[in-house]
Structures are given as C-alpha cells and as structure tokens.
UniProtKB/TrEMBL annotation:
Pfam family for this entry, one: Rrf2
Entry-linked PROSITE patterns: HTH_RRF2_1 (PS01332), HTH_RRF2_2 (PS51197)
Protein name: HTH-type transcriptional regulator
Domain of life, source organism: Bacteria
A molecular function (GO) term: DNA binding
Gene3D superfamilies named in the record: Winged helix-like DNA-binding domain superfamily/Winged helix DNA-binding domain (1.10.10.10)
Example of a GO cellular component annotation carried by this entry: cytosol
Alphabetical list of InterPro entries matching this protein: TR_Rrf2-type_CS, Tscrpt_reg_Rrf2, WH-like_DNA-bd_sf, WH_DNA-bd_sf
Keywords carried by this UniProt record: DNA-binding, Plasmid
C-alpha cells in the first residue's frame, strides 16, 4: 500500500509539530522545510485544523502548533481523516467481477494495513527523532552535523 502525497505530508507535518509542541510555525516556514508550495501546506494544515490535530493562531504573531497530545493522535485516524482511499483495485470494469475472489483478499489486506496503523500513535513516531530532523528543527539546512572521518 502507498499513501497519497497529501496524507504523507500531513503525517510529516504532524511529526514536526509534535516534536516542538510549544512552538508556533508559520505556513511559509513549514513550506520551506518540506519543500512544498505554501498553498499545498495551507490546504493540508486546514484539514488537520478541522480535525483538531493542529491548532491555528491567527494574527501577526500567529502560526500553527500541534492541537492534541501526540499520545492521543492515532496514525490510522489521521490517514482516514485525510480521506486516504483504501481500495486497492477497481473491479468495476473487470470481466471476472462475478467469479473473482481477489477483491475480498485485497480488502482484507487493506483492513490489516488500517488495523496496524490504528495501533500506532504520533507519540510512537517521535519517541526518538530521526537524526536528519534535528538540524531542520534547529534552523539548519538539514545536513548531517556529524563530522566525517
């Protein structure tokens, strides 16, 4: 299974916001960090705000920050909230539609995928931040700060 880009970036944005729960981020900053158009980030953030995963502060010193405790945000719920289609195949034009059992097997696989995602919380994804994330959070360029021998 492969997540669509909207869902992928929604999870990435949530991971970033969860690593700095007391910090507010401007859309432009998130856009630069993720190398996405600001309009795309804004659409994703708007949907995350609508579902309560992100809190938006308007005004001159505004921004966005995580809206719930990471331990309260299930990965599977975020995937579903972003309207991730879980149908693996489209059987509508297949000649075998009446006699095929493949769709049932694939639906079972998709359900297993969803069930696994429901067992993980955002807190599980930020327990030990990835080394590449730390420089980004500190305002660096994302390069590995470890000196090379």
């Amino acid at each position: 299974m492969k997540l669509n880009l909207k869902t992928d970036y929604a999870l990435r944005l949530l991971i970033l916001l969860a690593t700095r729960p007391d910090q507010q981020f401007e859309i432009e900053t998130l856009s630069r960090m993720h190398q996405l158009p600001a309009s795309s980030v804004m659409k994703i953030i708007s949907e995350l705000v609508r579902h309560g995963y992100v809190h938006s502060i308007r005004g001159r010193s505004g921004g966005v920050q995580i809206g719930r405790k990471p331990s309260e945000i299930r990965v599977g719920d975020v995937v579903q909230a972003m309207n991730e289609p879980m149908e693996i195949v489209d059987c509508s034009s297949c000649l075998l539609v009446g006699n095929c059992r493949l769709k049932g097997v694939l639906c079972e696989a998709a359900q297993a995928f969803t069930d696994v995602l429901m067992t993980y919380h955002l807190s599980d994804l930020i327990a030990a931040p990835a080394p590449v994330l730390t420089p980004l959070l500190d305002g660096g360029d994302g390069a590995d700060p470890t000196p090379q021998a």
